[in-house]
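Input chain follows. Return structure tokens only.
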Amino acid sequence: MILYAAADLLWATRIKATGEKVGTPCRPVRSLEMLELRLKDEPVRAVLLDLETDELAFAIMDRLRGDRASDPERAITLIAWGPHVLVDQLAEARARGCDRVLTRGQFANGLAELLVQLHAA
């Protein structure tokens, strides 16, 4: 399963619809509590993090890359995306251990391929 934290309904709908189209189950995460429930639900391959979710994206990064994380949780692929003008947030996502950090355009243009790759991994 692929989880995502999206700042708005447009991105949430786009990720979910693209996942359905390519056969990759995608589920939303709107809080750390929801993340914990999803982690217990079934194996998670990746988490997609919209940097415009304010602190949620960084809280999820800290949870999955921090001292509390188990080895399987640390192995979850983290992919952050945001507007190219959020230079500091993009750099911070890299520093906090995201496997890939993309501009919003890169994420939008490669979403279907990205979900297929993550599902196959």
